C-alpha cells in the first residue's frame, strides 16, 4: 500500500489526520506528512481508505 498526496491540492485541513493519525501528520506550516511504512493492519488500511474518500479536495491517491 503506497499513498501519495497531490501537494497542489492539499490545503492541510487535517481531515485525513483526524481519521488515521498513525499515518498522517500536519506540521506547523500545514504541510502534510505521510509515514514511510503504513502499518500492516487491516483496521489502519480501512481508515486510510476512509481518509482518501473523505479528503475534501481528493488530494490522496492509493497504489496497492
Ligand atoms: S484531508 Fe486532504 S486536503 Fe486535508 S490534509 Fe489530508 S490530504 Fe490534505
UniProtKB/TrEMBL annotation:
Keywords, comma-separated and alphabetical: 3Fe-4S, Electron transport, Iron, Iron-sulfur, Metal-binding, Transport
Listed name of the protein: Ferredoxin
Keyword Iron-sulfur: yes
SUPFAM superfamilies: 4Fe-4S ferredoxins
Pfam families noted in UniProt: Fer4_13
Functional summary from the UniProt entry: Ferredoxins are iron-sulfur proteins that transfer electrons in a wide variety of metabolic reactions.
Residue ranges the record marks as coiled coil: none
Lineage: superkingdom: Bacteria
PANTHER family: FERREDOXIN
Keyword Protein biosynthesis: no
Cofactor section: [3Fe-4S] cluster
